[in-house]
Design brief:
It is a single chain. By secondary structure, the chain is an alpha+beta fold. It is 31% helix and 8% strand. The protein is built from 10 helices and 5 strands; from the N terminus they run H-E-H-E-E-E-H-H-H-H-E-H-H-H-H. The strands form 2 sheets. It has a 3-stranded antiparallel sheet, with no helix packed on it. The chain is extended.
Amino acid sequence: LNRLKKAWSRPETIIVNDPFWTATARHADIVFPATTSLERNDVGFNTFDPYITPMPQAVEAYAQSKNDYDIFRGLAERLGVEKAFSEGKNESDWLKYIFAESKTAAQASNVTIPDYEQFWQSDHISVADQIEDVELILEAFRRDPHANPLGTPSGKIEIYSETIASFNYGDCPGHPVWLDKQEWLGGPLAKRFPLHLISGQPAARLHSQYDHSVISRATKINGREPMTMHPKDAEERGI
């Protein structure tokens, strides 16, 4: 973290798009408040998911927040290239354009999806009955290793890598090996720093997402995350 903080001091200006006041946003010089997925129109899908889901805007954008597209279009306007950037399309126009391209690409693969207007009024659409199951890389390799080699030098699953070994890294040999951590209770630094902090999964949030919410803040003490210490360690330090 200290190395990262030092690296962030090198650029003249750091700009961040973020819906929330994250640590990244707090360290930036300029923050463009971006909308969440509930405050904009979008289309949801996953590479290995047969569903395509319309995501119409559910609530008004909060305060001065804008969609990422509108943020960059505003920057393009100030730089005198708004027409080249937007091509005269707004958010809705781009969604329709991208969906139309997807429809054309689907037809080339013998997959039929409805027109945009019909899709936008639906809960979601599924193309599961129009596509075959995808054979994953390792499945194909197991079925026929010679016809479906992996992207390794040998084409096989490699436990030892000559390439990585040739780097001669002290902390990364060419094969799996146990390496003592630099900072732990059994290391030499423990004599000077005898406490070991273990960060578990917080109960009131998913990592730092939605840390600004009422539920997350209710578990804090003076706005900070509490930690648990053994009574003996606390007593020795007058805590």
